[in-house]
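Reviewers asked in the last cycle whether our approach scales beyond single polypeptides. To address this, we selected a multi-component target totalling 582 residues and predicted its structure end to end. The input consisted of the following lines:
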Amino acid sequence: MIRVVTVALAILALATPIAAQDSCGDDIPCEIGTGAYHAALPDSPESAPAVIWLHGYAGSGAKTIANTGFVKNFTQRGYALIAPNGLKWGGEKTKPDWAVRDGYQAYPRNDLAFIRAVIDDAAKRFSLDRSRVLLAGFSRGGSMIWDVACLKPDTATAYAPISGGFWKPESTDCVGPVDLLHTHGFSDRTVPLEGRPIDTSVLRIVQGDIHAGLLTWRNEMNCAQRATAVDASGPLWRKSWTECEGGSVTFLLGPGGHGAPKGWTSIALDWFEALPGHAWLEAGPPSD
Amino acid sequence: MIRSLARAASICAALAYFGPSLAFAEEVQDCGAPEGESCKVDLGEYRLLLPGPLDGGAKGAPALIHLHGAGGSGRGVLRMGEMTREALSRGFAVIAPIGLPHSATRRHRSWNFQSFDGRRDEFAFISQVLDDAADRFGLDRDRMLMTGFSIGGSQTWYLACRDHRIAAAYAPVAGGFWREHPKDCDGPVRLLHTHGWRDTTVPLEGRPLRSGARVQGDIWEGMQLWRAENGCDGLRADAFDDRGQFLLRRWTICDAGTALEFALFPGGHGVPKGWAAMALDWFEAMMEETREIR
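The resulting structure, written as structure tokens, was:
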């Protein structure tokens, strides 16, 4: 049985944890000062690990949690699923999005701070294990994850973006090592492996090259150039670079287009659970 | 134009040297038979298979050139059964240039494409081979597909980059640029690159050799340069396909007369089954289009 717990939280800035007497539910998001998230919990939420899911462009946390088949993939393995809402950055007519670094400055919220606040809030509220948090997401959500992992690598325990990477101008220097599982479809035309320019009414924004981005990650972590494990026995082909000074990079290539490939959830959670412990993780989340 | 002038000049030189008319007949019989002598040019040797009898039976035939991998040989190329069957049955000659020993101490045959330090200029050598094969056997110099495997694939990339007119099109396998990648190439290409996902000898991402003395480049990054040369401004591939074990991506919104494709297969370091038919289908379709334009 999935417990969908909902909490209305006043203003995070007051920094006073509010007991979970309020309920936020299917339709009512959990509010923090800078935004909102939805949550689905496993049967035993106490000290449960969590997956934070960043939806794609025009998605929402509510839609994510309403997808019961998707939610069960996580909750039945004992994970809480936390689904924050992106912001409509230009009024009601625009679609929910994330503060991806793409040269477009209109987005009004600091999502690096927001996502961390969501994780901290959910961990406290539901007594989750803050040291076992996987930040995952799709498309623009995937791109947001690349930015979080690059600029604030201690936000989550590990990162599993799908079908989204850096936008130009790409970050070429990240703060520190991370464990990254990147998944992409070979025939993705929306966020193609090579990137794509998109002309908006205001300016041209350009998706970055995924392979170049993965190289940035490997360079950042001083990974041995050659992959330590390569596999093509199933529908998802895999390459892992684990001989790094810190962290690791795994690339999953599916044959399909723009979407999470079949079976991704269990592959991602298997990968997450098999990660070796790292000093910077065992030190626990930073307090700020 | 320059090429045909050079060819005419070398024919004149040959005639002058050997005396009238007999020169060609003798040379044709000297080389070109599978078990016979290799064919000689100033800078080296090559072997070949013809789709018809030696004495003019291959006149006007197109050709598939294949540059062997490290430690390979011209004979070895001619023994690549699937490739030679595919080529010959379609009326293609198969040309196998022979690499030189890597060095005095490391005798395996290889190619030079980065620093020559006194070693053979492979562009000049391959040019001689192709011109010679066209002259001796009447092959169609304008319908030659350059292919190669591993370091022969890398050599194919470097030849195409140096002067894309050396062949009509390029179909390298499992080899690309080395570090530092060229920043610029001579111009647009028609190129189909094929690579195995599980290749750990020349991995898609490259690898350092001899403690980093030389470093294989990144194939994905190398493809960026071809896209730039071909004017594929949209970055992304525009067409996707699968064919047998190959996942194909194709850039089509590019300058006229160019072609760029990438074929990924699940295997390792090798010329994969089905590659020759795929590459020849690709090449023949392009040649057909070119003919229609003419």
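The CA atoms of residues 78 and 96 of chain B lie 7 Å apart. We regard this as preliminary and will revisit it once experimental data from Aim 1 are available.
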